[in-house]
Amino acid sequence: MMTPPPRNQSNAVGWTWREDARGITPGVDDTVRGETSAQRRIWLLETLHAVSHMIAAVDDIDENLQMLAEEIRARFRFSAVGIGVVTSERLYFRGLATNHSPTSDWVPIGTGICGRVLRSGMGELITDVANDPDYFKGSENASRAVVIPIMIDGVAWGVLNVEADAETELDAEIYDVLYTLTTSLRLSVSRSRQREAEHRRLRQLD
User: Which of 18, 63, 91, 151 could connect to 84 by a Cys-Cys bridge, CB 3.0–4.6 Å?
Assistant: First the structure.
């Protein structure tokens, strides 16, 4: 099992582990849904493969962010999954799947945990959202969260924001899977931009 890094330090893939208010670093459970540790790793790899394949299969990922958010939430049983896209003044959640009706699909750019992550460029695994001063309530009974910035050519394109209740797995291994999914998403957005640029170039030649 992967051991989480010390508080407020980053690991190789670039994220911050935030301990809860008691200063206790929670361990990684050896079972999920009654599975052994080895079976859990297989499940995580299969989930990563399936969702990455779905991302790669769509021509325009920007138009399919809602489908992607719903897929991630269903597979991991998270309370909420949001895929936010940066605009001039807002972080607009073009993909938003929650266990309740959201009050809004956007937040002012730079606010909340998402804003903090966009400023730092570092993803965060937060084990006690109730004691995080930047947390905005996004789902019922949320106790933990993962927020990962999605950077394209060094510029913030958006974020993946995931929340889970106390009964749902959200640990360092799942963080790594989500981080890899954001890499797949970033590459898909880049490919879409390249195709659009090529289409514009060809239209100008006509």
Answer: 91
